[in-house]
Each structure stands twice: as structure tokens, then as C-alpha cells.
Amino acid sequence: MPATPAWPPKSAPRLFVEGALSRAQSVSVEGNQAHYLARVMRISPGDTVILCDDISGEWAAEVIEVRKREIVLRAVEHLRPREAVPDFWLCPALLKKDRFDLVLEKATELGVARIQPMITRRCVADKLNTARARQIMTEAAEQCARTALPEIGEPQKLDALLRDWPTDRIIFFADEDGGEPARASFASHSGPAALFTGPEGGFDDRERELLRSFHNVQPITLGPRILRGETAALAATALWMGVSGDWQT
């Protein structure tokens, strides 16, 4: 007798939708999401789509109707609640567009709670399309089966970001001039944390002095080599997740 196929199928497409979901609720998707389901995934009535609402978690939904510009689904079963992610902020200096896109995508996959872009003196960019950034992060969350979307902040200048910094959140500052080894530093602190990484040209002397004088900063070193901005941000995030985050379980 053949085995009963797993349900929902692992191949089912995943989408984030706006608004809280509930059992038997009808959901309509349009635009790019409808195009993706109909033209790329070739879904048909009766097929399964996994929906996430960033509120209640993950739902299996049945495709009810495939229209020309709209897909109608019905939430069938609540699969799992919205996940709890470590209270870790990544605060990277803005980089060139393609490199910063990589940071947004991979940091989402790694499990950060918030990405707070910084503007420093040596940044080659000083603006970010946050709507586009949010879309990149949403697609990354869908790909990696994440049920909680990270927050994205508007870019802030370094001094302004420090001015309003929460007193209970330690800053790990990736300093090219050296500091405590990152792994040991991560292991010695618990609670809310953030990682500051620099732009292509690094932090300048004045910025480095400002950071080192701040009351809640721990300078760290990321090894013997000078890393690109995107490499430093992602390598250190991965290390933090392994030492203090949700990679321990």
C-alpha cells in the first residue's frame, strides 16, 4: 500500500500576507504574489499554499480560485505560531546597492530581529529605499521558512543613532584597530545586543573614538584579515547566533 503523501507538501509555495489569519478565513492575493503563484508555481484550485501573517504564525491554505489577476485562498490549518527570534540588532553602515541587498537577505536568513542601517562619513550611499529593502527581507523570510519578519529602520547618522540608544542594549563594535575576540565577547554578555559594522572604507578615527567612548560599547575583532563590509556584518552575525543566539538549540 503506498504511503500517504505528507501534508502540507514541502514543495508548497510560501507567502507573507497582511492582516491576522484565522481558520476558514478567505484571503485574496494580487499583483506580484498572484503572478508568482499562477505563472511561476502554476498553482490550481485545491493546491496548498503556506501563508504567514507575522502575527499568528504559519497557516496551510487551500487555493479556491485562480483568476486573471487574483488568487483566492482559504486558511485551513494553523501549522505553527510566530517564532521567537533572538533580540539581536544588526546595524551595518550603508554599502553599495548590491552589497547591501546581500546583507538584507542573508541577515534575515540568519535570524536577526532588526536591521538598523547607519550613515557614516565614508559611506558611498546615504539613502535606502526601505520599501524595496522590506521586500527583499520578506522574500528571504519566505525562502528560509521564517515566520517572523525582521524590522527595518530608516538609515540614521551614527551620532544620531547613539544619541537615542537604549541603555540596556550592548553594542559590539567591529573595530579594525582591534578589540576583544568576537567569540569570547559574545559569550560573556547576555541580554539585548547589537552589532555595528562599517562601510567600504571603514569607520574614520573620529567615529572610532566616539564609539569607544560610548558607555555601552564593546570593541571586538573579527580575526586577522580586513573584511569587506558585507562579510563583516554577516560573519559576525553568524558567529553571534552560534554563541548566543538560536543556533545553540
Please outline the helices and strands.
Elements: E1 14-16, E2 26-30, H1 31-40, E3 48-52, E4 58-66, E5 70-80, E6 88-92, H2 97-110, E7 114-115, E8 118-119, H3 130-143, E9 151-152, E10 156-157, H4 158-163, E11 170-174, E12 180-181, H5 182-187, E13 193-197, H6 205-213, E14 217-221, H7 229-243
Helix pairs in contact: 2-3, 2-7
Notable traits:
single chain; alpha/beta; 249 residues; 5-stranded mixed beta sheet; 7 helices; Alpha/beta knot; Ribosomal Protein L25, Chain P; 2 domains; 7-stranded parallel beta sheet; 25% strand; 30% helix
Largest sheet: 7 strands, parallel
First-last Cα distance: 37 Å
Which CATH class of the largest domain applies here?
Alpha Beta
Strand order of the largest sheet: 9-7-6-13-11-14-12
Return residue spans where pLDDT drops below 50 for at least 5 consecutive residues: none
What is the typical, i.e. mean, pLDDT? Answer: 94
Based on secondary structure, the structural category is: alpha/beta
Q: C-alpha Rg, in Å?
A: 21 Å
- Based on the coordinates given, report the CATH architecture of the largest domain: 3-Layer(aba) Sandwich
Named CATH topology of the largest domain: Alpha/beta knot
Q: Domains counted in the coordinates: how many? A: 2
- Fraction of residues in helix: 25-40%
Gross morphology: elongated
